[in-house]
Structure formats: structure tokens, C-alpha cells
Amino acid sequence: MDSFVESLQARIVTAGESGTRLNIVGGNSKHFYGGAPHGEPLAMGSHQGIVSYEPTELVVTARTGTLLVDLEQTLAESRQMLPFEPPAFGAGATIGGTIACGFSGPARPYRGAARDFVLGVNCVSGRGEYLRFGGQVMKNVAGYDVSRLMVGAMGTLGVMTEVSLKVLPLPVIERTLVFDCSGNDALTKMSDLGGRPLPVTGTVWHDGKLRVRLSGSEMAVESAASSLGGDLDIAGASFWQALKEHRLDFFGGTDPLWRLSIAPPAKMPDLPGESLVEWGGALFWVRGNDPQALVALARAHGGNLTRFRGAERSVSFQPLGEAEAVLNRGLKQAFDPAGILNPDRMLAGS
Amino acid sequence: MGQTRRAFNLRHEKLCDILIVSRVITALRVDGSHKMSQQLNEFADELTQILPSEALLLSTEARRPYECDGLTGYRELPAMVALPQTFEQVREILRLCQRYQVPLVARGAGTGLSGGATPHSEGVLLSLARFSRIIEIDPQARTARVQPGVRNLAISEAVAEHGLYYAPDPSSQIACTIGGNVAENAGGVHCLKYGLTVHNVIAAQVVLMGGDVINVGGTALDTPGYDLLATMIGSEGMLGVVTEVTVRLLPLPDAAKVLLAAFDTVESAAAAVAQVIAKGIIPAGLEMMDNPAIVAAEDFVQAGYPKDAAAILLCELDGTVAEVEADIQMVSDLLRESGARTVDVARDEAERVRFWSGRKNAFPAIGRISPDYYCIDGTIPRKAVAKVLAGIERLSAQSGLRVANVFHAGDGNLHPLILYDASKPGEFERTEALGGQILDLCVQVGGTITGEHGVGLEKINQMCVQFTDQELDQFHALKAVFDPDGLLNPGKAVPTLARCAEFNAMHVHGGELAHPQIPRF
Ligand SMILES: Cc1cc2nc3c(=O)[nH]c(=O)nc-3n(C[C@H](O)[C@H](O)[C@H](O)COP(=O)(O)OP(=O)(O)OC[C@H]3O[C@@H](n4cnc5c(N)ncnc54)[C@H](O)[C@@H]3O)c2cc1C
Q: What dotted CATH number matches A3-169+326-335?
């Protein structure tokens, strides 16, 4: 085991004894997300490097401080990628922070989420124990699936030191088609596309325009493109990049940004602010100051609301049901009994 | 094509037995042939208040069909069998179990291969067989909400009219239930491209020991809080009883073609798999069989396999018609370059089904040539396959037991089938010992002791090889969050540290695995 991990363990054990709370920091690119960070900074950014990568195994293992851009670059050199297309939200983003937040990009409904591609996690628990779950193989049901539990847990269950991820080949080509249409028509079209065996890997509607991304072999993409019609967006690649990284105009300005994750509705809901629809109609980004209306919408559509940027941080996530909340608190207790890892970042009051 | 695209005929005496078993649901309560403790008697009396009398089996004859799952070497009669039909009944049963501290083991179709559904002699065996209703199909959202006792294949059959299917297709799909699939994170031959159960189940309703109900996952693409759905999947009935499952459905592809490539060495077949992946192609299915498996399958179903080949690969490609044509050509060329002796593309749907039938019937084919067989389920990095197969051959020679190998080559999941005769004294124990050595080998090359069949009772010792005490402790702590009294499926999936201490001591000193004298329960 390397000295970094050993000193990390020592630090966590000491913190546990003294009740010192730790704020785990990768590249600090997602500090805006969830409850406000507090506690002594625990820097992970120096724990870098790809531990193993064999393209024909479709698996990469990296230390969690590895920069997301570096990892993606390495994969791209072998014409592979992280299929869940995680947003970085900053050049310093690390793979550890990426997995801890569990964000996925535009391809999410079509290729899967961050949690779908996590094969294994090594971590130091709140007890200071170095633990390895899952592994470097595609299929593994030995023990409970703690690796996936870590995805989106925001470091509250353990400090991840290494992650193993399933990777996939980069598509040979990509095309972006643009259609002028209303929100309602866009939702219908998105739903229709999802029900057909087409190489769709992204859909987004904003400001009267629906964009559809097709990726795959040349033959599959070209034949789908010609059957779907619409206009070709020659700046497609940079559009999806800007969308993923929230660099479109819609994401600028200072109004709070809300993330409404719901079962795709048949018609545009009555939203209290400007919106952008992704993920085949399953994700609505909304600007504005009326979270109450959005919470009501989320409930009505079997989903949930997350505060993304701006507004009051202490209520970032929608409250859980009673029985689910008991289990969430129990899990936190089971992995981090002293409650020192990223306190209040995910579950208020713990 | 279409409707039966993922449906394969499965002939398997053992499986048929299992099917029959799961239908033995109307056996009547026959009183008193076995003695239960005072406390269990009181518990049973309370159960009769909840369940109609025909739904509580107490007689030895009625309980007998439930004494084992697909791993028939492990048997135990449950104190009683409950066959609830409503959600409220399940809740009440779990409440009562908690109150009386009675252990409970959930059971789907009993096709599990790791003893996960082996009953507890002092507990209730809870059969979900009567929860066999497809509650709702939403073709627009491409989801189906089903009860846990619904058979895997029944979902694809029910949604085929909408041009949809449920992707994970274990070979046992005509019999196994979605509840059992969730508990084992079941996979199938199409997992490389379409994922395992964990990738295709989007929500579940779960009753916890004591009767609390949780809803995990949902129809939105993410949910707040920890990913309890991921935790439930593959948890082997240790955390809660799944009472409802929502699955994601996929559109049936326009076209699918399969090719059959024969190789003179296992190494060249393994290398060819790597070549296909390196080319950026993810086949819908990529399966490998070694010579003993080829011969057994060919003799059984006449799939058209060359019986003198050292290994064959079955590679299925799907997509649009034009895309499949192009890919099939590319992969055929690639396989020839990698040393395939012959490459045959199935000319029509009938031949495609025939090619697959050999693979899908590999287990029963082995069952025909040997009185018994024992299926191992290790997963390894693909690059280690030639090394591991050579190691298995060596271990097989040492033990004097024959081994045939079928392999989900795309994702490295190896199923060595050990041929043995349970009626010969000591042979099952030798088989288990060989199985243990094979799993050790899988762990040594960076793999895992189980890819899709679960730990259950069977691989509980090997958990001590794969995990440290601290890791096992963390699993126990997780289990305690869901089931503090340890009443769900006790003794399975995660060994106690005491047991590991004992096992590791023998493991090191004796050199032999899985000493039969270690108590199993
Ligand atoms: C011939 C054959 C081929 C097979 N091929 C494959 C294959 O290709 N891929 C594969 O993955 N597996 C395969 N299997 C193994 C087996 O079919 C799977 O593990 C399947 O998922 C078990 O489902 P079941 O309904 O039979 O569950 P059971 O055997 O009844 O139970 C399995 C486990 O699930 C738990 N359980 C069942 N229902 C519930 C519930 N509702 N709530 C909570 N826990 C529950 C049980 O307690 C037990 O631990 C095969 C088995 C056979 C016999």
C-alpha cells in the first residue's frame, strides 16, 4: 500500500478520535454542489495516476486525484471514453470528485450513468480502514455492491483512493441534427426516438430548438440521420461540450439554477422560469426563485428537485421518505460512525 | 424475427424439476408430522391468522420440494413454507418474524446455483411464486412494473407486441424470477452490450425485516440519497424482500446475426476476443466454449459445432440491417486473421437459433454425460483466460475430475463445469475442493469468486480469500443497517470472522480447500 494511503488512514483515525470534521477536496470544481463544505480540508489532488489500463479489457483503474481531463485524454489515445460523459465543471476536476458527485452528461439516458460504469472502489472509511470493494472485472457479485453505493455519496461514506471504471470505444462518427419545434413537440419526438433502435446519444430542447445527437458506426449514423431529417448542426460537437459543462448562455447569470429530475412528461409542465430540457425529457434545468413550485412538480411527476447553483445551500436535496431516511442515516453511521467525512454535504445534520 | 428473438428453448431435466417445484403451490397443510419448538408453534399459529391454510405448508411432504435450490448438494428442510399472495401478507409475515425472532429465507424459482435459497431449519421459507403478475406495461416510457415472482422470459414475451424486450437473459430465463434476478444481479449472454440486472432495473419496492417498506430507485433517472437500489441488487436476499420491480425495456434491434468461429487453440480464441474489442466493436453477445463443452453440446442438440475444435466463439452482432452486415464482415475477417480455422455466419434465423442452442444448452448437455455437475462462476480479466484455463486443466488432472468450460468471453465470466458422481462417496467433497481451487485461481489473477451466481452458502469460504476481515466487517455493518437482528437469510453471503479465521488456518496449513467437516450453517 502506498504512503499516501497510509497517511490518509492516520489522518482519518486522528480526526475520528478528536471529532475533527474533514472536507474532502479533489479539484474543488464542484464545491458549489450540495450542502456547504466545512471542516479541515483534506486534499486528494496529489493522489494522481492511472494504475492500470488495458484497452482490450475495457477497464481503467485510476487514483482518485487523477485529473478528469488527463484520464479522458489517455482513453482517447486508445479511442475509448468514459461512456457516462461526466461534466468537469472546471479544469481541476478529479475522477474522485466526479464519482463522488455521480454526475453524468448528455448521454446518460442512452449509455448509462456514472454508477453503471463503476466496477470497483478502494477507499478509507470513516474508521480509517482501507477497504476494497468490487474489482477490475465486469461482473462481480461477491459481497454487497459498496462501490456503487459510493457513487453520488459525496464522500460521506469513505474517502475514495482508487476507482475502476468500465470504458467503451469512442463512436466512429457523431452527427447533430437540429429541429425547430415547440417544447411539447420536442417531448413527443424525444420519447419516440427512445423507443426505436437508433444510435441516439443525446437529446436537448431549448428556446424552440431540439437537438439530437447520433453516435456510432458511420453506416448506422448516416442511415439514422437521413431517416430523421432535420438540419445538420456542423458545430454540434462544441454544442454538446458547452451543454455538458454548463457554458451555454442559459446557464449564465445569477438566478438560482435548479435541476428537476422526473419521469419524462408527455407535455411541457408549467415551469416557474426559463428552462432547458435534456435526457429525453427526464431532466429539466430551471432558473428562478420558486423552488416550492418545482418541488410540487417533482412530486407530481415521480421525481425530485436539486438545488444546483445559487439559493440557500442547506436545502440542496429533496427530503427522503421516513424509512429511506432511516437507512441513509444508518449507512452513514455504519461507514463513518464519528460523522467526520464531508459533514452536511449530503444529509443535513450528519 | 422479433417476438422470440431472445427466447431460446431450454431443455434441462433439473430445470424442469425446478419448474415443477415452483408450481407445487397448492399442497395442503398436513398436520403435525414434525416437531417444532414451542415458540415456532406459536409463530405458526399466528401465521394461520394471516394466511389461508393452503398457503402455509407444514407437512414434511409439502416442505420437501423446497429443501434445495439449483445447487442440489445443499439441502435443508425449512420449518415451514409460506406462500403469501398479497403484499400485506408479506409485511405481516416479516413483522411476525421480527417479533418472534424467526429466520426467513426468500425464494423465487429456486434456480439459484449458490444455495442462496437453501432454507433455514428453524425458519420460514417465503416463496414469492404467487407474485406472478405483470402489474403495468408502459410502452411510452418503456418500463414494466412487475411482481417479483414473474419469470424473466415472461417479461420479454409480454412486451414483445410493443417491439420491446427486457435485456438481461440468463440461460435459466424460462424459469428464474425477476426477484431472484435482482437478488443475484443476474446476467446473460447479452450483458456485454446491454448490461446486467443492475443496469436494467430502475426501481423496486422492498419490505424490510420488521415490516417497514422502502421504495428504491424510481422512474426518474436519479433519486436523492444513497443509491439503495444498487445496494439491493445482488444482495442475495439478505437485506429485504423485494415485492415489486420496475424494469427498463429496450427496443428490439432491427437485425441480429451470429457467427460461429472455430479455433485450434484456446489461446488463439482468447486473443481473437481481445482483437474484436480492440477494433471498437462491442458485440451483443460473445461466448466461448472449450472442447469438452463443444462435444457435449453438439452430441446433445446438434448445433453444428465442430467437435474437433479446441475452442469456439459465438459472436452476435445487432443493430440496423446495413450495420450488422458491415460488422459481421469486419468481425469475420478479424477472426480469420486471429487464427480462426473456420468462420460460419448463420444464414437465417433458424440457424442463428441453432448456433445459440448449443451454448444455451451447455449445462444440460453436460448433465447428460455425467451423473452430476457442479457449476463454477468466477470472473477474470479476459487477458488471463488462457492462463486460467491451463490452470484448470492442471487442477482437473490432479483431482481426476473432468471439467468443461463455457465462458461469457466478452465480460470475462467463466463457468467451469466439474463433472462428478454424487453417489460415489467423497466425490462431491473432492468436487467442492476443486471448485475452491479454481476460485482461488480466479482471485489470484485479479478476478472474483462470483460473477453472477452469488456467494450463497457455496462460496462463503472463498469470501475469506477475496476480502479482508475489515471489509467483511463493513459488509456485516451494512447488513445490520437493514436487518439488525440478522434474521434474513442467516449464514449466507458474508462469512463471520470466526469462520474465516478457521478457514484461513486450514487453507494455509492443509493446502486443500473447503474441508467438508466445517459446519455449513
Ligand atoms: C440451467 C441454469 C442456467 C443458469 N444460467 C444463468 C445465467 O446465465 N446467468 C445468471 O446470472 N444465472 C444463471 N443461473 C442461476 C439462476 O437462475 C439465477 O441466479 C437466478 O437469478 C435465480 O432466480 P430464482 O428466481 O430462481 O431465485 P432463487 O434461486 O429462488 O433465489 C436466489 C436468491 O434470491 C433470493 N430471492 C429470491 N426472490 C427474492 C425476493 N423477491 N426478494 C429478496 N430475495 C429474493 C433468495 O433468497 C436467494 O438468495 C442459472 C441456473 C440454472 C439452473
A: 3.30.465.10
- pLDDT tens digit sequence for B284-299: 999 999 999 999 999 9
What is the complex's ipTM, to 2 decimals?
A: 0.97
Domain containing residue B151: 134-251
For ligand 1, whether the C-beta of B116 sits within 6 Å is yes
Q: How far apart are CA A284 and CA A280, in angstroms?
A: 10
**Mapping DSSP to helix (H, G, I), strand (E, B) and coil, where does residue A259 land?**
strand
Q: Where exactly are the structural domains of chain A? A: 3-169+326-335, 173-309
Report if residue B518 sits inside a domain: no
Domain boundary among B226, B251, B276: B251
Pairing of strands A257-261, A304-309: antiparallel
Q: Taking CA A306 as the corner, what is the angle to CA A304 and CA A312, rounded to the nearest 5 degrees?
A: 135
- Nearest by CB to B450, from A57, A141, A301: name it: A141
CB A209 within 8 A of CB A185: no
Grid coordinates representing B393 are 486443466
Q: Which CATH number is B463's domain given?
A: 3.30.70.2740
pLDDT band at B321 (very low <50, low <70, confident <90, very high): confident
Upper half-sphere CA count for residue A136 (Cβ side, 13 Å): 24
- Which one of A144, A188, A328, A345 would you mutate to disrupt binding with B, by most B Cβ within 10 Å of its Cβ? A144
Question: In sequence order, what are the residues at sequence separation of 6 or more whose Cβ sits closer than 8 angstroms to the Cβ of residue B262?
Answer: B305, B306, B309, B311, B312, B340, B341, B342, B343
